[in-house]
Amino acid sequence: MSVPKPEDLKVMLEARDNHVREQWIKAMEVRLVREELDKCQRGEGVNAHVHCKELADRYLTMLADAKVKGWRIVDTQAFKE
């Protein structure tokens, strides 16, 4: 494994930062949807499964790809190229 050039290192660090930032934004969006779903379920009571279905479906679809994986995935993709 060779030592990366300073220009490449700067690009790689920026890519890391952007990748982690985007993952955290997705995670926080999921958190907001979950909070809205909790409010809806508390407000609707026994009818929550009917009135909050859209929020629940949105939460489940967002939850699937909102995991924060970190910056190592960016590095492994960079070394494959």
Automatic annotation (TrEMBL):
Q: Which residues form a coiled coil?
A: none
Keywords, A to Z, come to: Electron transport, Membrane, Mitochondrion, Mitochondrion inner membrane, Respiratory chain, Transport, Ubiquinone
Q: How does it sit in the membrane?
A: Peripheral membrane protein
What compartments host this protein? Mitochondrion inner membrane
Q: Name one GO cellular component term.
A: mitochondrial inner membrane
InterPro entries this protein is in? NDUFB10
The name under which this protein is listed is NADH-ubiquinone oxidoreductase 12 kDa subunit mitochondrial
Protein species of origin = Exidia glandulosa HHB12029
